[in-house]
Amino acid sequence: MHKDWTDDSTFDPICMPTFKQYDALRMALADEVLQVVEDSLVDTHLDTLVKRIQPVDLDLLKLIRQRGLIHGKVITTQKEKQALMRCKVRGLVSPVRIKGQYYKYDITDLSLALLDEKGKATEKAKQYQT
Question: I want to staple 75 with a disulfide (CB 3.0 to 4.6 A). Which of 56, 62, 80, 115 is the partner?
C-alpha cells in the first residue's frame, strides 16, 4: 500500500528547538505514565505479594536494600538464585546494565512498599506478643 499524499505534498522542515521542546515534553509525559503504572501495580499487587512472599525472597530484598546494587555473583546458593528469579518475575528486582558488560540488580518501588508492609506486619505481631 503506497501513500500518494507523501509523494504529492511538500513538508516544511521541523524547527530543531521546537522538536527538542516537543521531545522533552514527550519524555516527561512518558515518565509520568510509567510512574502511574508503577503506583497502580503497588496498589493492586501488594496484598497478593505479602501473602505469597517467601522468607528467602525477603532476605534477598533486604540485602539489596542495604547494599545497593548487587552483582549476580553475590548470589551463590540455589535457593538464592531461585529467589532472584521469583523476584524478577514478580517485578520486585530489576536488572541494571553497568558499563555494557555486567548486570546488577536493584529493587523497585513495589519491593520497597512490600518491605515496608512486611515490616509493619512484623511490628504488629511483636506488639500482640508483649
Answer: 80
Domains of the chain by residue range:
14-123
Cβ atoms within 10 Å of 38's Cβ, excluding its own: 15
Residues 37-87: tens digit of each pLDDT: 877 877 787 888 888 889 999 999 998 999 888 888 888 889 989 999 999
The whole-angstrom separation of Cα 91 and Cα 68 is 17
Model confidence, pTM: 0.63
Helix, coil or strand: residue 90: coil
In words, the CATH class of domain 14-123 is mainly alpha
Q: Which helix (H) or strand (E) holds 94?
A: strand 93-98
Give the CA-trace dihedral at 18, 24, 26, 27, to 10 degrees: 160
